[in-house]
Amino acid sequence: MIISALILLALFLFTWWLSVRLDNYSFVDVTWSLSFAPVVAWYAVSGDGWLPRRLAIALLVGAWSLRLGTYLWRRVASHHPHEDVRYAVLREKWQANLKRTFLGFFLVQAVLVWLLMLPVRLIAQQIEPGFHLLEVIGLLLWITALIGEGVADAQLARFRRENPGGGICQTGLWYYSRHPNYFFQSLLWWGLFLMALPAPWGWTAIIAPLAMLHFLLNVTGIPLTEKLSVQKRGDAYREYQRTTSAFVPWRKKAHTDASHP
Question: What pTM, to 2 d.p., does this model score?
Answer without folding.
Answer: 0.88
